[in-house]
Design brief:
Largest sheet: none
Oligomer: single chain
Number of strands: 0
Distance between the termini: 52 Å
Shape: elongated
Number of helices: 3
Amino acid sequence: MEITLKKAVAVKLDLATRERIKRLAVARHRAPHWVMHEAIQQYVEREEKRESFKQDAVRAWDHYQATGLHVTGDEADAWLAKLESGMDAPPPKCHV
């Protein structure tokens, strides 16, 4: 069993945003705290995925800069067209 320690954090929100949160909470039969917690959880997960995608792109660019290995846009398009048509096609080979 995992024990999760939680600590309260204060967030300053303008009155309009607080009212919007209250309306959502009422509509969803939840507490405003739940709405804020859920919003923060979803935001953090989304931004972590976005950052991971960005770091993957940076690593791919660095690898290309170091090796010159690539596929052309036409090669990628042809491969994707095969996949879209239902064919189980291997990806094109990288070249310099």
